[in-house]
Amino acid sequence: MESSDRASPTSIKHPKPEQSPQERGTTKLYLIAAVLTWLVTGTTISSLNKWIFAVYNFRYPLLLSSLHMLTAILLDYPILRFGLVHVNTEEEQTLTTSARMKVFLLSLTFCSSIAFGNLGLSCVQLSFAQMIYTTTPIFTLALSKLFLGTKHHVLKYTAMIPICLGACFSIIGEVQYDQTGCIYIFASTFLRGLKSIQQSLLLKEENIHSVTLLYLMSIPSFCILLVAAVLLERGVVWESPPDCDNRLWLFILLSCLGSVLYNLASFCVITLTSAVTIHVLGNLNVVGNLVLSRVLFGSHLTVLSYMGIALTLAGMFMYHNCDFIARYIGSRRSLHTTERRMKSE
Predict the structure, then answer these.
(1) By C-alpha distance, which of 139, 132, 166, 158 is closest to 284?
(2) Among the residues of 238-321, which ranges form H helices?
């Protein structure tokens, strides 16, 4: 029963002790490293996967995703088995049935998001899919309010406008509309937001370590994606692509390793910040993808692209500094009120 789970020692939430200045500095450096790793791997994986699909004509996206999960299992198991990362094994081994069910639901959401995303990409251009993906912070913000009861400052809601508009402007010149593909991509976007909320609950409420969560999530995800690849990609003959060479398998290996780093970094960022923050930062990946597309594929950046980059960065500044902006506005208002009183006297 739920009541017994809540009363168990492993589920009691103890207040965290206040951090010393040195600990706060270490946490900040750890967060910066996690964000940089997440941004670099997120941007490079997108271009790397595009290179695998476009240049080498690799037609098995679900199989590639299942290999990502298999790599996570193979890397995380020895890390957990030999204690290379400090994990509270007692708590992790006594996960409640409710927590294990949440991990399985996270795997279903993750796999469904990939499936809808791949179906959408078969109907629309990558640029159009990216444009819709930039609305993920809005879904995450709404879902965190609905399921977690999180209260957000009004400036955080306001920041969503330039963030989403900016990313849309960056790629609006290449949009090719398709109704079916649009529905698939919006479904994938909603599931991406839901996935972040589920991750936040498991990382913060259940206190599961990021490495352990990735390991537990990867096992059912690998099984689901592999079965889906066998069933849905059976129309494609399972043979080496015509342009196959050793570099293809090297790129696939790099993609798999990068996905593990990406997922671990995203879990760390969510643990230290919030589910909304990671998607706000994720719009920087749009900027990074535009730059890499220019370098690798010769894409042209228009005036709208540069305007979009500026809007996205402005929205991110507003989101991450809303408290500072609110204090500044409040101080200006109080100053004006004081000046009026002095004039009236």
Answers:
(1) 166
(2) 246-272, 275-297, 303-320
Q: How many CA atoms lie within 13 A of 206 on its CB side?
A: 25
CA gyration radius, the chain: 22
Each residue's pLDDT tens digit, 150-202: 777 788 788 888 877 876 776 665 555 567 877 888 888 889 888 888 888 88
- Domain residue ranges of the chain, discontinuous segments joined by +: 27-344
Q: Which of 111, 328, 344 is nearest to 219 (CA)?
A: 111
308 and 166 Cβ atoms separated by less than 8 Å = yes
Q: What is the DSSP string of 236-249?
A: S--S--TT--HHHH
Helix, strand, or coil (residue 83): coil
The pTM of this model reads 0.70
Return the percentage of the chain with pLDDT > 90, whole number. 6
Residues 13-25 have a mean pLDDT of 56
- Residue 217 in tokens: 């999530």
